[in-house]
Amino acid sequence: MFEPDDEHAQLARKAVEERRLHDAERHLRAVSEDSLETQAWTLWVRGRIAVEREHSAEAEPYFLQAAVLALIAANDGGVPRRSALLRLAASSLEHAGRVQRRRDRLTNAERMHEQALRLREAHGTVEEQWETRISLGLDAAVAKRLQDARGHFSRAADLGRMCSVDPDRCSAVARAHLATVLAGIKLHAEAVIEAREALAAERKHDPGSEQVARAEMLLGRLLLAHAEAISDENPPGCEAALTEAEELLQAAGTELPAFSPVNTRDAEACAELLAIAARLRTSMARS
Q1: I need a surface site. Which of 27, 108, 109, 188 has the fewest CB within 10 A?
Q2: What are phi and psi of 209, to 5 degrees?
Q3: Measured between alpha carbons, how far is 87 from 113 in angstroms, rounded to an integer?
Q4: 225-238 tens-digit pLDDT
């Protein structure tokens, strides 16, 4: 992440990234807002604080004002940090777009993310481009435009492999989203391939993590959907998919609650999917 030019703004940014919100506010009070760049960073941090506190309506104007100030400062012909300012504007638009999506303003969200992507493709890092491709995919998916979402997540998966920071994790996130979208348009075999790649990437990134268990659950769920789709035309393939799905869902259902009691609902969902698998087995045995 690029840094503000003001020391206290740097500390505020670091604190909000680490969710130390009171520290972020304390550092902001010490910021000398004597430049447009510093003012833009201050607004960006305030927007992030509001988001962390789930005050979306409050966050939106902070991010939009931050983007405007950063763009104004960047267009000053003599500014020495033009690229950093444009990246700040892009980050502000990225976060503003997320707020818009949370508030079901999908057209606005997509427009802001498209603007952020243009800036990031010209001035940002691969990681920043990946982030906004994911956002555009989510915008499209929420709007039920699954083919558009497919394109964005596919591009994000390509970018993920090129990321210099956590490429396996970036690839896994994009492929998991892509798998979900492919399942939504009934491309079950392709969805399973992407979910399998996502699981492999999560295991490579951090073998014992909660995200591995979640990737197991996703692959298990999509294998079950694939098994249901081919049960009549390909019983052996259905049996193989069903067996693997059961193994993955049993593993995920056991592992997820160990990470957090909040994951009990996911374990219950795994149990429900296993019940569906059992009913499918019974149906197959009768036919």
Answers
A1: 108
A2: -85, 165
A3: 13
A4: 999 999 999 999 99
